[in-house]
Amino acid sequence: MRIYPAIDIRGGNCVRLLNGDYDKETVYGSSPADMAEKWERLGADFIHVVDLDGARSGGGENRRAVGEICRRVGVPVQQGGGIRTLDDVAAVARLGVSRIIIGTAAVKDPDMVRAAAEKFGERIAVGIDAKGGFVATDGWTEVSGKTAVDFALEMKSLGVETVIYTDIATDGTLAGPNTAAMKEMVLRTGMRVIASGGVGAMEHLDALSKTGVEGVIVGRALYTGALKLEEIVNKYR
């Protein structure tokens, strides 16, 4: 099970939100690239990056910061947030991002996802953020009528192999992940599932390791020191 340290970028800073609430932000540094180098030094073999400004606006406000991360680390980077069009996908690919995560646009424009998967293959992933089991969009500010699992199966039919599945209710809380939802996603879709949300202790990772997820994104727990990246990477590698 791969551990993905998370770097969320807002206004050029490295931040964390609580439950996806933009009004509940903690700033952890002014250089996302410095943070990425730190996580690489401590053993990360893949970095997870989110452009929070882009996720809400649909723009690419933090692409310069993303590009700097890609230039300064030797490990692959996956990035989501603000990727709405095929041109956006191509622009992010040019930055050096290895896995491009389409979120809101996957709900609103599935034809774009199909085209992206045809052009970029395994580099395309879909971010599925769920509130009460239903897909949320636009930086988690809107909730669609699609269930997370049904939506994942729709994306699979378009050629997508990887989903990043976030349970918004647990995100940033450190209170534990929604393991039942993660297990259901793995079993019902057969896709490569990366779990996100709620990880705050080693036992949470142990529980997720039994669900069949390919990897786990860890954010706030690393920034607060509740988990040490070098320890968890070595345990689950």
Strand percent estimate: 25-35%
Give the overall shape.
Answer: globular
Q: Percent of residues in helical segments?
A: 25-40%
Strand order of the biggest β-sheet: 1-4-5-6-7-10-11-12
Task: Provide the domain count.
Answer: 1
**Radius of gyration (Å):** 16 Å
Please state the average pLDDT score. 92
Task: For the record, give the distance between the C-alpha atoms at the N and C termini, rounded to a whole number.
Answer: 6 Å
The CATH homologous superfamily is called Aldolase class I
SS content category:
alpha/beta
At the first level of CATH, what is the class? Answer: Alpha Beta
Structure description:
The structure is a single chain. With 237 residues, the protein is α/β, with parallel strands linked by helices. The protein is built from 11 helices and 12 strands. An 8-stranded parallel beta barrel has the order 1-4-5-6-7-10-11-12, surrounded by 8 helices. It starts with a strand and ends with a helix. The mean pLDDT is 92.
